[in-house]
Amino acid sequence: MNDYKKLMKFIEAQALLAPVSPGESTRDLYTYFHEKLDNPSNDRGDVREMANRALRVAGLRPRNSSQASTLDAPENADLRARAAALLAMSIIRDMSENELTSQYARLRKLNQSAVLSELRVTLKKGDVVQSRKHPKLEMKNFSSAGTRASIWRHEIEDAYEKTHGMLLQCEMRFLVGGTTLTGPLDTAFRAYFGDPAAVVDTSALPFSDASKPVWTPSNQTRLEVVREVMRRVCRNFVRQSIRIYFGGRSIDDGTFAYVSGKTNPTKIHVGGQFFTKGKEGLASEAGTIVHECTHTFAGTKDHKYRDDPCKQLAINDPAKAMANADSYKFFVEAAFGS
């Protein structure tokens, strides 16, 4: 096993001890950071060089040498811990060799237990940047995943701002008012959910049980069903922090984004396709954020994707339309996106 894999195994063992979810720690180690590490054109060099840099700074490999390190020697346990901490910093915080040398001078003053504790903190926090424009927006792994992702960080801020604007319009124009809709708002509603006055048995709607809204009484109009879903999205989007993760190649082909858990901050994972392929029809990054928020806050499912299938769903199976995430995405974009 080469030194890089040995160090990553060591780091993985520490991640399991860190107070982070397995999904966060493992995904960060083996997927997010590999978006940068596996890219031969990245500014910091390839996988081997990133490991070598940490080994050199920790004193486990002579400079300009490709010989095997003394990583496994029992007497080098402290050095191994420091090298692992340096590799994690190099990957997560995108540190150069000079920056690592400065960090190593500080780590040398710590015992092994303190070094490992700092490593676990690094794994837990990762590459998190607080948006200066939007206090409740956090962005994770954009700096550590290469030049493109750093640029996309600004696009995320724009998407968040657009989402906030659409949901504010939704609150003012849709969540208040009487039992009828008029004009373009009525047209958009009928396109994605059918007749707003039609009464449905909400207990039979195919939402996810974990987050499903509860209506009392159970018989409600479609308008009230959709209003409750959007009420939850608007309320929680404004009140809770949103953390958007860059997932790179970790996100399967054809998937723009997904959510994990209901904790604060709400976690939305996005891949490169979120930015490069989300432009078809009415699709947008902001609409995708709305889509994911309906999963988290209201228990919607993915019954259908894309604009035309969602419109057909409203005609053929309106019960599924009211529980379909993309139906809300396209409705919000059509009604409040201009």
From TrEMBL:
Any idea where the Lysine-specific metallo-endopeptidase domain is? 197-333
What name goes with this protein?
Lysine-specific metallo-endopeptidase domain-containing protein
Q: What is the source species?
A: Dyella thiooxydans
- SMART domains (UniProt xref): Aspzincin_M35 (SM01351)
Name the Gene3D superfamilies for this protein.
Collagenase (Catalytic Domain)
Q: Which Pfam families match?
A: Aspzincin_M35 (PF14521)
Q: Which domain of life is it from?
A: Bacteria
Matching entries from InterPro entries are given as: Lys_MEP (IPR029463), MetalloPept_cat_dom_sf (IPR024079)
Q: Name one GO molecular function term.
A: metalloendopeptidase activity
State the organism's lineage: Bacteria, Pseudomonadati, Pseudomonadota, Gammaproteobacteria, Lysobacterales
